[in-house]
Amino acid sequence: MSLRSTLDSLAPKPKVKQVDMTKEWGCKPYIRKLSWGDLKRVQSLDDPAKQVCAVLCDEDGKQLYNEDEAHLLEKFHADDLKKVLDAATSFNSLDEQVKQAKND
């Protein structure tokens, strides 16, 4: 099997991390590490609720909400959504990419 065939046949294993939202939501939801394609798509979204939908998942990495369900998260305070997004930004190494882009 060629290297190309091997790479094409791979399915990345989900990577997840818990976010401590115990005070805010009474639970510790999971966020997922995004694929490069998902990352580019999420960065283009202008609605924080849609961005949170893209990263919230169960312990197996299965997305909990799709973007069409963002209105369901709009009941949460902005700082709660920001806390989830900040954790996702760090988990997906976006903060380093932003720093590097500013330095270029």
Task: Annotate the secondary structure layout.
Layout: H1 3-9, E1 16-18, H2 22-25, E2 30-32, H3 36-43, H4 48-55, E3 56-57, H5 78-91, H6 94-103
Helix pairs in contact: 4-5
> Structurally, how many domains make up the residues?
1
Strand ordering within the main sheet: 1-2-3
Percent of residues in helices: 40-55%
Structural class: mainly alpha
- The total of beta strands comes to 3
Overall, the morphology is elongated
Strand content: 5-15%
Largest sheet properties: 3 strands, antiparallel
User: What is the radius of gyration?
Assistant: 15 Å
Task: Describe, in plain words, how this protein is organized in 3D.
By secondary structure, the protein is mainly α. It has one domain (14-91). Helix content is 49%, strand content 8%. The chain contains six helices and three strands, in the order αβαβααβαα. It has helices at 3-9, 22-25, 36-43, 48-55, 78-91, 94-103; strands spanning 16-18, 30-32, 56-57. The protein has a three-stranded antiparallel beta sheet with strand order 1-2-3. Helix 4 (48-55) crosses helix 5 (78-91).
Brief write-up:
49% of the residues lie in helices and 8% in strands. It has helices spanning 3-9, 22-25, 36-43, 48-55, 78-91, 94-103; strands at 16-18, 30-32, 56-57.
